Structures are given as C-alpha cells and as structure tokens.
Amino acid sequence: xxxxxxxxxxxxxxxxxxxxxxxxxxxxxxxxxxxxxxxxxxxxxxxxxxxxxxxxxxxxxxxxxxxxxxxxxxxxxxxxxxxxxxxxxxxxxxxxxxxxxxxxxxxxxxxxxxxxxxxxxxxxxxxxxxxxxxxxxxxxxxxxxxxxxxxxxxxxxxxxxxxxxxxxxxxxxxxxxxxxxxxxxxxxxxxxxxxxxxxxxxxxxxxxxxxxxxxxxxxxxxxxxxxxxxxxxxxxxxxxxxxxxxxxxxxxxxxxxxxxxxxxxxxxxxxxxxxxxxxxxxxxxxxxxxxxxxxxxxxxxxxxxxxxxxxxxxxxxxxxxxxxxxxxxxxxxxxxxxxxxxxxxxxxxxxxxxxxxxxxxxxxxxxxxxxxxxxxxxxxxxxxxxxxxxxxxxxxxxxxxxxxxxxxxxxxxxxxxxxxxxxxxxxxxxxxxxxxxxxxxxxxxxxxxxxxxxxxxxxxxxxxxxxxxxxxxxxxxxxxxxxxxxxxxxxxxxxxxxxxxxxxxxxxxxxxxxxxxxxxxxxxxxxxxxxxxxxxxx
Length: 538
Description:
9 strands, 538 residues, single chain, alpha/beta
C-alpha cells in the first residue's frame, strides 16, 4: 500500500487578507486534511486485517514508556521497603578480582577527636585497551668450536610478530562478533597496532591447522557417541557462486561444512567425517534394495570380489566396469556405498536424524520437525470465517498434541504411546470446511512414522530449533560480508563457526578457548574429548 502524501503546512493568513474566497478555500483545505487523516487510519486498519487474513501478525501498538513508573517503584522499594527486587541474588562484585585499591580521604579537614569508622567500598570495573609491544632480544653465542648458539622465541609466539592475545582478539572479533576486516583494521590502528591489511588477512587464515584438526575430529567423535542429531542447510556464496552450508549437531556439539551441493550424496559424504572411501556391505545393499535399484545390478555389486574402494575415482571405475551407467542407477548405488562407509567408520545404524523434511536428510532413522509440520497449516490463507475457524481449531489441536508428546518424553509408557498414536490418526484424518487444509492434513499424515519417531525414541528432539538457530550466523554473515573469496577463507569460516558454537553448547568461553590454544597452554581439553565425556552416562 502506497504511503499517503504529507500535506504542506499552510502559512498563517492575516485577517485583513482573508477575502470570502480565501476563507472558503481555507475551510475546504481543513476538511480535506481531516479526511486525509481519516483515510490514513482506515488504511492502517485494512492493512492489519489483511495481515490477519494471511495469518501474519498485526503491527505492534506502541505504549507509553513505563521507565519512569518502574524507576519510581524501585526507588520506593529501596527507600521504603528496604531491598530492591532481585537483591536476594548474589552480589555481582563478590567474584571479581581486585587489581588495584585506592584509598580516598574526605576533602574536608578532619576535626580533632574524630574516630575512624572504616571504609565504604565502591567497586568500578574498567577495560584496559592499548598496544603493548615487547622486544625479544635473543642471545647469540659462538662456541670455541665455531658453532653459533641462538636463543629461541617462546613457543606461543612462534615466528609471528603479533602476540597470542592480539591474534585471539582478531579471530574473536571477526568470527564471533561478525566484524569485517576493514573495520577491524581501522579499530586496531586507532589503538596503536601497526599492521597492514595483508597481515590482518594472514592472521585470519594462516597457522590455523590445530583448529582445523580439532574441528575435523569433532564430527567423527560426536557421531560415534550420539543417539541423534538435528540437521539443516542454507544458501551461501563462494567465489561469486551460490553454494550451501550444512549444519549437523545436537545439545553437545555443532559442526558446519560449506559445499557446492546439498544433495543426499553430499550429505552422506559429510557424514563420513573426513573419510573418502566407498563400502559395499549389507547396509549398502539393503539401501539399494529399499530404493528399488535393479536386482541384477545389486546382485552384481554383491558378488563382485571388490567391496571397498579408496576414493571416488576407484568407485566410478568400478561402476563403469559393472556397466552401471544410468544416472538413477549410479546415484542409488553411490548413496548406498556412501552409507556403507558411514556405518563402517563407527556411526551407529540407530542414529536418529531430525530434519525439516528436506529430502537429502532422509537416511538412517529419520525424524521430522513438528514446528515445520505445523507451519504448513499456519501458512494457509482461508477465505471466509468458517475456514478461519477450522484452521485455528486444527492448529490448537496440533499444539496440544505436541505438548503431550513433550510430556511423554519425560514419562514414556505403552498406554500413553497408543493413546498418542490414536490422537494423531484422528487429528490428521479429519474433514474440515477448508479443502486446502484437508489436503495439507493428508500430506502430514503420510509422515506419521517420522513425526512420531519420538514414541520409539523419547530422547530425540521434536524440532530442529537448535539447527535453525545455529545456522542463522551464516545468514547474518552473508548480509554483513557477502561470500568468501578463497577456499582457505571458507574453511576457516566453517572451522571457527563449529568451534564457537560447540564451546557455547559445552558452557565454555570462546575467548578463553582461543587464548588457551594460541598461548599453547592447552589447559582446556580438546573439544571432541569434552563432547565424548558429555555423552557418557553419569
């Protein structure tokens, strides 16, 4: 809806200049202005009604500020009733380390005979920001034999001209706070740090092998000890081309990988957690049978003496030798061999994968997100009051069933399981006055086993909110910085996103983690080890 044009303000006309014509025109203008205001109000109301019909939210109503009222209440409670709200909690300054104490005497002269009554403590927190430059003077000695001995730099310094705290700050600001390189360079220079744009880029990209290794080990360890994961993907750009990033994680870890594809083959390659082989085993053959690969082709793969292939080149040569040349046949065979490799490397065949119903994630024990299922009903556009009533009633019934499924997770019983299955059948087989809604309910009903996987596996989540939240950082990053330009830059982005999110899930400070690793202290255990420990029963 186009905005209403703002009318210009009419200057005050002296009474002497108000002819009958001018007075009449002023009255007409005043009535038109009132009509414009009325039309503006009606337009806003119509916009809200249209939003409601589409299932969207109305514009928020702005209420008068209550800051003054709250301040008055708090001051009244402090003065009249004693302690302010929330003061029963621990004092925030008790755990602080005091770095400096300053004793301040009264500015007025102290009269003779006065008695000292102690101190009134007032704690002030501040942040010290500034460049700190250290010159290392490495001693050199020449032995009687003519050899030269030279001191070595501390291990934490390596051969860089920038200390571990500065490098930690650069990584933290860029990967955690989404600060772009130009702004970060400008900030550091204002603080007295002398470095170029190329040096800043090198700090972000080079000497990251330890981080990459920890990230690569994270997925294989987590998949081996996890009973379930949630997954999601989103678009991202690399070298000016569209691509994708996939998230795999649960309550203990988060792992990201950027690729050019989001097919099922791509997802199974990610689940191999760094391995590159293809395996023909019983799980692979069962997958091919399930997806109706020609029996003669399955039998050929089964009877051939070679069942393990080191890489994609060997696998494709094997398919060619067996004359498996059709695109569909090669795809199903490749998916089966990749699944065989995934299970051969320690991933449990009972692993539950919860997704938003994207087809590439439908492997192993697949579960669906209830939030995305309900969204299919929420997004429908009813055309009359009867349809709106039916839509609202069905949504209420879905969320009621969802709440009971959450309670079932706490106390699973066979009786509750049968009751919830019956409620699902009743809910999604009903007929309403809204035909599009009826078809949507049928569509959801076809996914019964995946939506009710929680009845067999109460430990799995009912939604993919964790993955949706985790991958949102990539969406923000795309808006702030666009895509990556180099393969190394893309790898560093995936690595630090994985490590940052995992630290948060494990209750670790990402800043403490970075400084620990870059200072070579290694007081924080490897993240895969912490994930493995989290999965162990108490």
